[in-house]
Each structure stands twice: as C-alpha cells, then as structure tokens.
Specification:
60s Ribosomal Protein L30, Chain: A; 12 helices; 11 strands; elongated; disordered N terminus
C-alpha cells in the first residue's frame, strides 16, 4: 500500500470511528472542520486530544477556537476566600433588643438568655446593671462597637443593648386551668384570630398585661408569633404574661366557655355597640380579628356576643391593637372597684 493509500486508509478508519460514535457524517462536517476533504490538504489537521488542538492553532488546521473562550474554559479559577462566619449573626426570633425588653428578660427569665451584647461607651449605670445580672446568672456578655451592633440588628432601635435568648415558648391551654379555677372572680383572656403584624401583637400583649389579663391566646400557625420584635414592642410584657398557642381557635373558645367565661368578639358588623348595657361580663374572653379581614366566620359564630366600637370619623376603622385596647379597658371600667 503506497503512502496515499495509507492516508486514505487512515481517513477511512477515522470516518468509521466517527460513524460508530456519532451515527455517520453530518452535512457540513467538512466545512466546519476547515479542510477541503482531500488527503493531501490535511497538513493542518489537528484532531486528537484537547491539548494537541490548543497547541496547534495553525490557520486552516482543524477547528479554530475563540482565545477568550479558551481562556475562560481552561484558566484555573482563583479560589475565593470563604465569607467569614459572624458568630453574632442570629435570626430575629432569637434576638431581643432595647433596654426595657432586655432588662425584663434578665429579670424575669434569665435562664433563657444565652448571651448579652452591649455597645462600647454605653451609659455606665446601665452597663453596670446589665453586667451584674449577667454575672449573677452566669450569662456571657460582650461589648461591641456601634457598627457591629447595627449589623446584629439592622435598622432596629436597640439602644445599645441586645440579648440572644432561646426561642419563646407558647404554653398549652390547659395551663390556664389554675388561673381560671375561681369561678366568681373577674377574669380577662385575650384571644387573637390570626393577627399578622408582630407590632400589633406586641402592642396587644402590652395592653393585656397592663389591663390585668390572665393570658393571651394566639394560633400556632398562620399568624404572628412572639419574636424579638414582639418583645421589644411589648416593652417586655411578653415575658410577664402567659402566651398560649393553640391549633384550633374554635375549640379554645369552647374550652374558655367551659371555665365560665363569656366570649365577646370585636366585629365592625356587630349588632350592638360595645357601650351597650353589660357588654363586658366580669369573666370575659375578648376576641380580636385579623387586621384586614376581621374575625373568621367560624370564630364569629362561636362568640356569645359581637360588638362594634362606635366611631364618628371618616376613616371607618381602628388599628387592631387600638381596638383591642379599647375593648380591654372597657372591661377594666366595668369590673374596676377602685374609688374615684
């Protein structure tokens, strides 16, 4: 076999190999390869390993590659240093900020506090009081620069004091039985029908604690839950009043009825005014609806009374936290025996 035959045989073998691998020649293969198809014209043929193709690079020899693309494909990637982990980054659910909230946490439930952060240069009396609490309860504390504290609670009015604590626990409704045992004594329980705004939740908890409510009941799903924001807005009241979590509000209202409480729902479409007669029994479960839709149908049907708050302005409605406070203090007015 002469040299030309050898070259033709080699080409046949390559064609056979291509047929086995790719199912035969495809139209345009010759044009894409940059050859004329004649054996003697294949001086620049560079088929083979990827290394050979990159080294050759001769005009007209094999398939040319974009240099930029080649560089992007084969240039070793410069390793990026990992983002340093910030041990102080926590979720909002575990952070409490502000002087009232953190001091209440240290005073009421120090066993839940994991660590306390203070801003460098804070008021000396505040720093001494906080560190004294921490040392007594063996709680780690750390002084941070102002910008580090801001990264910890971005946008929050932390007042130079932040605490990391275990997540707030919601009690079971059965824990209210000892508080409701005395059937002839006034009792107020506030029930929230899927409020969404944690600021409203914090405000209601604060008002409930001030009004002397025994507990606040809220759903465990599809509503705001006690977080650092709630504790801050409540000025620490969320740590002093029992918070009860339930999965079925209707069942919870029936449970309260069995304990001798009347259930009153605040409802804009209620038939009677909150000021009518004895609208607030001494043993009362006050139900407040969601910010936009109010009371759900089943909850409204379970209430013993539906009452609206009279309004004279044109806005047409009150904020949920304000409406709840009005209802609570109407109960206070009804049962209060303080001399005037």
């Amino acid at each position: 076999m002469n040299g030309s035959d050898k070259r033709r045989g080699s080409g046949d073998n390559r064609a056979s190999s291509r047929n086995r691998e790719g199912g035969g020649n495809r139209p345009g293969d010759r044009e894409r390869s940059g050859t004329s198809g004649r054996p003697d014209d294949r001086k620049g043929d560079t088929r083979g390993s990827g290394d050979e193709r990159r080294i050759s690079g001769r005009p007209g020899g094999g398939r040319s590659e974009n240099p930029d693309r080649r560089d992007r494909q084969f240039r070793p990637r410069t390793p990026q240093p990992p983002r340093p982990a910030d041990p102080q980054e926590q979720t909002d659910d575990s952070l409490y900020w502000g002087r009232h909230a953190v001091l209440s946490l240290l005073e009421e439930t120090p066993e839940k506090v994991l660590k306390v952060y203070l801003r460098k240069g804070s008021d000396l009396r505040l720093a001494a009081r906080v560190t004294e609490f921490c040392k007594a309860a063996s709680i780690p504390f750390l002084f941070l620069e102002a910008d580090a504290l801001e990264r910890l609670c971005p946008g929050a009015n932390h007042q130079g004091l932040v605490a990391q604590a275990a997540p707030a626990e919601l009690r079971d409704i059965e824990t209210l039985l000892p508080l409701l045992r005395e059937k002839n004594t006034p009792a107020l329980v506030v029930v929230l029908d899927h409020l969404k705004d944690p600021h409203n939740l914090g405000s209601i908890i604060r008002s409930a604690e001030v009004a002397g409510a025994l507990a606040v009941i809220l759903p465990r799903r599809r509503g705001a839950l006690p977080t650092g924001t709630v504790a801050k807005v409540s000025s620490g009241a969320a740590l002093r009043i029992p918070l009860v979590g339930v999965t079925n509000l209707v069942a919870a209202l029936e449970f309260l009825k069995e304990q001798g409480l009347w259930v009153l729902g605040l409802h804009a479409e209620g038939p009677d005014s909150l000021w009518k007669g004895d609208a607030c029994p001494s043993r009362l479960a006050l139900v407040v609806g969601e910010e936009e839709t109010g009371l759900s149908r089943l909850v409204a049907e379970t209430c013993d009374f539906l009452r609206f708050i009279p309004m004279r302005g044109r806005t047409g409605s009150l904020n949920a936290a304000v409406a709840a406070a009005v209802g609570m203090f109407e109960w206070v007015r009804t049962v209060d025996d303080t001399p005037r």
